[in-house]
Amino acid sequence: MSGSGGGKKRGLTGEDQTLWEEIAKSIKPLPGRRTKTGREPEALSVEDQLSRGVEKRNRPVVAQQAKHRDPPAPPLAKIDRRLKSKLSRGSADFDAKLDLHGHTQAEAKSRLMRFLETAQVREHALVLVITGKGKRSEDSWSNEGGVLKRQVPLWLSLPEFRALVIGFEEAALRHGGAGALYIRVRRRR
User: Fold this and answer.
1) Cβ neighbours around 158 below 10 Å, total
2) Distance from C-alpha of 26 to C-alpha of 62, rounded to nearest angstrom
3) Which of 4, 7, 23, 81 is the most core-located residue (most Cβ within 10 A)?
4) DSSP secondary structure string for all residues of 55-97
5) pLDDT digit string (tens) for 19-66?
């Protein structure tokens, strides 16, 4: 054994042999190759692999993808009562305004997204979005209001909007009341 450092080669201890056998069970040979026994190894479930600590590269893609999901969208919060009171009295004001009157749902959603993205870039804290109250049909006594009045709050609750919005509430009468929303814009990260 010249050149090997003079050390004596030793075999695996009983504990090392047991550990090696456990690891060897979890190794999957390359496609088309067989193990020493000549048969394909048993596939381990994701749970078995995780519990045995099998290296990440040997785990199925599904287990890896579960760790790399997008973080959940931040929750929405109501507008502070004091701020809302100041807005209704006129002692505080919003930073920008968007009027969605006369737009289709698709146009309105797209415009709202662009408006909020721009507001976030410009570091606006509070914006006003006017949806309108909608036309009330004479043969209907329903107070549901217009499509945009109903849809905009639903859109603002979607994950793609929640990354831009902290919260929203119906505007004060002086700013449109039930036909408008105050929206608090989330700061960029």
Assistant:
1) 13
2) 17
3) 23
4) -GGGS-HHHHHHHTPPPPPPPP-PPPHHHHHHHHHTSS--SEE
5) 778 777 777 767 666 656 555 555 555 555 555 554 544 545 554 455
Report the C-alpha gap between 189 and 183 in whole angstroms: 18
113: its two tokens: 């997204």
What does the block give as tokens for 14? 């009983």
Question: Can you give the length of the chain in residues?
Answer: 189
2 is written with which tokens? 């010249």
| pLDDT confidence tier of residue 107, bands split at 50, 70 and 90 | very high
The angle formed by the CA atoms of residues 54, 60 and 66, to the nearest 5 degrees, is: 100
Checking DSSP bridges between strand 126-130 and strand 96-99, what pairing results, if any? parallel
Could you tell me the domains of the chain?
Answer: 14-67 (no CATH), 81-185 (3.30.1370.110)
Amino acid, single-letter form, for residue 164 = L
Q: Which helix (H) or strand (E) holds 126?
A: strand 126-130
Please report which helix (H) or strand (E) contains residue 66, including its range.
helix 61-67
Distance CA(108)–CA(160), nearest Å, equals 15
